[in-house]
Amino acid sequence: MSGSAVWHPFTQHGLGDPVPLVTHAQGAALYTADGRRVIDAISSWWVTTHGHCHPRIVEAIRAQAGALDQLIFAGWTHAPAERVAAGLTAMMPEELTRVFFSDSGSTSVEVALKMALGYWAHTGQPRGRILVLEHSYHGDTIGAMSVGERGVFNAPYEPLLFDVGTIPFPVGDGANTLEALEAACREAPAAFIVEPLVLGAGGMLMYPPALLSAMAEICRRHEVLLITDEVMTGWGRTGTLLACEQAGVVPDILCIAKGLTGGSMPLAVTMAREEIFMAHWSTDRAKMFFHSSSYTANPIACAAAAANIAIWQEEPVLDRLADLGTRQQALLDRLAKLPGVGATRRCGTIAALDLEVPDGGYMSSLAPRLLTLFREADVLLRPLGNTIYVMPPYCIDDADLTRIGDVIEMAVRAVL
Ligand code: PLP
User: Which residues does this entry mark as bearing N6-(pyridoxal phosphate)lysine (predicted)?
Assistant: First the structure.
């Protein structure tokens, strides 16, 4: 047994890997207790957008922590939450008029599912079935796991999960997906939940905006609620504030988290159209939205989110995304030439490549070996099986991006 009592997430302690101790971070770099500078090539699980310890966000957190640290949010409010809600309704699609706070991407999904079922129950047409896209990942709480891909992540917990309708991932022109969705929508399900344009933990699988538009159109025609999970794709990852924008799609319910606070504090929101809010609006107390956690809309987290929103409103973030996208493409073009590198793909600032191995998928034996090589080379990369992806903070400079490329090249040559 190691000296630490900490049980880490998605970590097999039995492999005995060292667990680096990080003391501080700045921009795209993490600094360890033993004096190493580590490049954060995956934005610390896809959350850090503008860079670690961004001065505007740090200052907002500092000021808020000394003013109001926490407040029950059932029937009470505070200025940071109001600023975030006003900011979000101004910058997100205007049809999304309501903002419900929670604490993580998973809970934003739980809230979305409950809102969808609440909508149908309170409008007198109860519906319960949820449609999902094959290979999706929506989080690790029970509802979020239920709507995610069944497999190694959740096999032991199967008895807790509810049944869903799975729509196949697009192949070729995506007719397989659209036909299956059309057929499933005829059965009057409650909602279809989808990661727009990029399926993250499923292997950075990408599909074109036209397909998202076509899926949204099918849902609209059959009056099936569309839930877009932009927990990973939101806040610029795909080159636009939301991935949905590229498809001209406005969902009925939108989940955002991760980059909401610039990646500094845990906070999430689920945004909804007015009809969904109004289905719960009543003098009947039994129709209120029964969901909360103790820290819902924590003021310090909201202050961080308000600072992030101000950065988006006042700084040329979209220009930075375009620039990073171009540099990521150059990185991919370079890596694509390596022997053993198969498919490469990019959506905005997310770049991914597959290594050609017999045992592909999340449990590929390659992943632990790559992880070790990356860690020893002071680059934080966490392959999804035989898929290596790069998703850095938007402030990353050319030298660090080149170093990431060098390290991937070294590791690929070493393992293949
Ligand atoms: N949805 C998507 C698309 C995600 O990528 C993730 C996390 O990676 C989640 C939901 C869950 O978010 P969290 O880890 O904050 O609970």
Answer: 258
**How far is it, in rounded angstroms, from Cα 30 to Cα 178?**
43
> What is the pLDDT confidence band of residue 1, given thresholds at 50, 70 and 90?
very low
- Domain boundary residue, one of 314, 336, 352: 314
| pLDDT > 90? residue 276 | yes
Residue 237: exposed, middle, or buried by beta-carbon count in 10 A (0-12, 13-18, 19+)? Answer: buried
Percent of the chain's residues with pLDDT above 70: 100
Query: Helix or strand or coil: residue 140?
Result: coil
- What tokens were used for 134? 């094959």
Does residue 348 have its Cβ closer than 6 Å to ligand 1? no
Question: Domain limits at 272?
Answer: 57-314
CA nearest ligand 1 atom 7, residue: 139
Say if residue 90 is in the same domain as residue 103: yes
Please indicate whether residue 324, judged by its CB atom, sits closer than 6 Å to ligand 1.
no
pLDDT band at 2 (very low <50, low <70, confident <90, very high): low
Q: Which value does ipTM take for this structure?
A: 0.99
User: Is 255 in the same domain as 323?
Assistant: no
Ligand 1 centroid distance, CA of 384 (Å): 15
